[in-house]
Amino acid sequence: MNSKTQVIVFGLKDEAPAESGCGCSCGDTGCGPTPTMGEMYQELSEFLTTKVDNIEFKFVDILEDELEEHEDVLELLEKQFPIPFTKINGKMAFYGGISNEAIYEDIKKLNA
């Protein structure tokens, strides 16, 4: 692969994603501590760095960083889609969470 793969995650670095209802029987105690979007981003970048050459990562905080050049992100926020959002090579790929394996599979397809 000659071209650089760009992965941008949009979210709130110090907040966990909204509860997704995991379907377990944990009751009110939940399923354990939920990582923040910043921690999920860090895990994603570490995971992909070991599997993909020539990759670039960026985290954009939707409250602190400029979003003017990301109209698709503004539209999803307006429609109240759950964050985090993940863009791969400029195209919106995922929202509502970060799945290392799913993002890796998308990147593999793009670079095939």
What does this 3D model show about the protein?
- The structure is a single chain.
- The protein is α+β, with helices and mostly antiparallel strands and 112 residues long.
- The protein has a single domain (5-110), classed as Glutaredoxin (3-Layer(aba) Sandwich), CATH 3.40.30.30.
- The protein is built from 3 helices and 4 strands, in the order βαβαββα.
- It has a 4-stranded mixed β-sheet, covered by helices on one side.
- Helix 1 (37-49) links the parallel strand 1 and strand 2.
- The chain is globular and about 35 Å long.
- The relative contact order is 0.26.
- The model is unreliable at 21-28 (pLDDT under 50).
Q: What distinguishing features does this structure have?
A:
globular, Glutaredoxin, alpha+beta, 4-stranded mixed β-sheet, single chain, 112 residues
